Amino acid sequence: MAASMLGGRVFDQERKEAISNMTVQKFNWRAFLPCCGITEEPRIPKPSKKQNSFGKLVLSDLSNPNSTTLSEDLSNSLIGSNLHAFTLAELTLITQNFSSSNFLGEGGFGRVHKGFIDDKLRPGLKSQPVAVKCLNLDGTQGHREWLAEVLFLGKLRHPHLVELIGYCCEAEHRLLVYEYMARGSLENQLFRRFSVSLPWLTRMKIAIGAAKGLAFLHEAESPVIFRDFKASNILLDADFTPKLSDFGLAKMGPEGDDTHVSTRVMGTHGYAAPEYIMTGHLTTASDVYSFGVLLLELLTGRKSVDKARPSREQNLVEWARPQLNNPKRLNRMMDPRLEGQYSELGAKKVAEVAYQCLTTRPKFRPTMSIVVEALEPLMSLEDIPSGPFVYTAPTEAISQNGDAKKENGDHHRDRHRSRSPRSSSTVHSEPGMQKNVKNGLNSPRHSQARESSPVNGVIQGTVS
């Protein structure tokens, strides 16, 4: 028995040696081809992936915040971008030492202050208000997000991307200087408790502009995936022109034959695409899903996630998407602060686009260019009711003892919109709203208390 086992082992050893020799012989056989007059077919190298103009190599080279040559290397990589490398002293000066009176807000990156650049600060730099964003060293973002913002916005220019004017990189300090956006974020304009409701056409203008910004990123020579598209990252200028901001989480899109980018799951709950959450596979379709969520917010006036609502209504997509194809349910879903003053045809079309963007099958979502084509005609629809968006200021009555007393109570609660086109004291917030007076009778809410609110002291609704 033992001899038999030993013989088997010897046989196995001999077989392995024979296979090894055959492998060597096979490997060396190519060397003999030329002497036999046989030429081997040349190998065609696999095409190398297209290099990004400012992509992964630059990010990796500059991702060390402790590099002694970081400022110089960054300046070299941004040649031709027209970005200004500000000093900390300059930014301290223009923000009045980051005064609390200039404080605009705070996000995941850090605090934002308003500043003013005069023509004496830098040659060739025009006088203008700016927003200065300071990286919070103890916050959720860091040097890498700051760097991504500088590299992306330093190279990309579009009417619907916020303009980065410059940056500051001194010691541990990381700051960004943007154009000043007078209306702030869409999130504040849409959801702030005591703000005036955004008119329907303004909402459509914002949706179309944001869609154009995403389409530009997706169709660039080196496609960019925004990854954190949401209402708070859409800034509005004085005319409500939207611009995408905060590129800290943006990623270069897939290259060559790749279908996706594998990355850590980051973003905002309620906006992130389900397949990205489950697999970490990021594509431009992930941004399309997030845009669909934004359309729901514009339609309903609800946040993507709202824990204050009943449990089955807390997630906007889960609650709203099943109802989008039902016209009656859609009318009931519309933002009540619009008070019926919207285009029914336009709302139906927006609902259709949102439904397609929010499908769980990424390949069936439309591209952002197709979304833009679908939404642009909505600005010219004329089935919007004629009643203006208005704001009722509190009237004051003099009591018997001579004290001023408000008749209407808290003016924030008395905000309303007049239904009667005959009210001469009404100031229109959208000049084109009275094109079709007759169509105002078709408002979904026209039959509700047409003249239930006073018209005394009516002022324009679109205020900052």
Automatic annotation (TrEMBL):
A Gene Ontology biological process noted in the UniProt record is: defense response
Region annotation Disordered: where it falls in the sequence: 396-464
Biased region (Basic and acidic residues) positions are 403-412
The molecular function terms in GO held by this entry are: ATP binding; protein serine/threonine kinase activity
The lineage is: Eukaryota, Viridiplantae, Streptophyta, Embryophyta, Tracheophyta
Query: This protein is called what?
Result: non-specific serine/threonine protein kinase
What is its subcellular localisation?
Cell membrane
Signal peptide stretch: none
Q: Which spans does this entry mark as compositional bias, Polar residues? A: 436-464
- Keywords associated with the record: ATP-binding, Cell membrane, Kinase, Membrane, Nucleotide-binding, Plant defense, Serine/threonine-protein kinase, Transferase
Ranges where the Protein kinase domain occurs: 98-379
UniProt GO cellular component terms: plasma membrane
Residues that bind ATP, according to the entry? K133
Q: Which domain of life is it from?
A: Eukaryota
**What EC numbers are recorded for this enzyme?**
2.7.11.1
Query: Main subcellular localization, coarse class?
Result: membrane
Q: Which SUPFAM superfamilies match?
A: Protein kinase-like (PK-like) (SSF56112)
